[in-house]
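can u do me a favor
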């Protein structure tokens, strides 16, 4: 366990901190998408939907930083061949994945802190902060495992970029992340409850004091997100391609 932890820290340091020391503006560039949508919704709605925009931007940022792991792994695997070094070393796939996922979290830390602060201020209740952090970690973990699994089956960087971008839209834009789930027809609401980002957004909305559906609860949201995290981790461990034959 201690050895695995040290390996995770070293991988995160090599791929995250060292890069940020040379290119600190990377933190700014990676935050453009969620904040740009937040800005557009704020202007278009004249501030009416700012709370929903903050909730959606926080979820979108978390999903993006998790799935971005897939692009990084594809790049290291196909361009730099760095993954071959870790395959030959006594490093497990999940250790490698966790180290790179942690480095992605470092890139997004300022944006996540800013959005979490905004959500807390709009909620006017610091007691909801642990719930926000829990939702962020569950979403980040599940999306990182998904990104790792998808990228392990990609032979070209272009394919990885296209698929990761497509999945990002499917999970962070189309479901009720930036808008209330009650705007959907009833049959589509049931379908939306199957998507993990729906529950992530509802948890953020609930922590901000927004009205959530009576049929939904915090415990349901935690259960669904935890199930997706466990499921994607199991999928990544069992089906991800770690060693090229």
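np, heres the sequence
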């Amino acid at each position: 366990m201690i050895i695995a932890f040290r390996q995770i820290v070293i991988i995160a340091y090599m791929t995250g901190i060292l890069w940020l020391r040379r290119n600190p503006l990377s933190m700014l560039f990676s935050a453009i998408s969620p904040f740009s949508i937040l800005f557009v919704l704020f202007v278009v709605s004249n501030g009416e939907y700012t709370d929903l925009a903050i909730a959606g931007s926080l979820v979108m940022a978390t999903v993006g930083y998790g799935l971005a792991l897939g692009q990084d792994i594809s790049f290291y695997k196909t361009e730099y061949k760095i993954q071959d070094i870790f395959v030959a070393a006594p490093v497990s796939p999940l250790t490698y994945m966790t180290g790179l996922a942690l480095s992605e979290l470092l890139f997004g830390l300022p944006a996540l802190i800013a959005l979490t602060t905004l959500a807390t201020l709009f909620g006017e209740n610091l007691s909801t902060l642990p719930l926000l952090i829990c939702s962020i970690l569950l979403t980040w973990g599940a999306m990182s495992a998904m990104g790792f699994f998808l990228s392990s089956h990609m032979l070209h960087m272009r394919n990885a970029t296209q698929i990761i971008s497509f999945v990002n839209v499917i999970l962070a834009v189309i479901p009720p992340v930036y808008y209330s789930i009650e705007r959907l027809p009833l049959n589509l609401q049931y379908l939306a409850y199957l998507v993990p980002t729906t529950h992530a957004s509802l948890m953020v909305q609930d922590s901000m004091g927004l009205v959530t559906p009576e049929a939904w609860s915090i415990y349901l949201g935690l259960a669904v997100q935890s199930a997706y995290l466990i499921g994607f981790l199991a999928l990544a461990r069992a089906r991800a391609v770690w060693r090229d034959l």
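The CA atoms of residues 73 and 151 lie 7 Å apart. hope that helps!!
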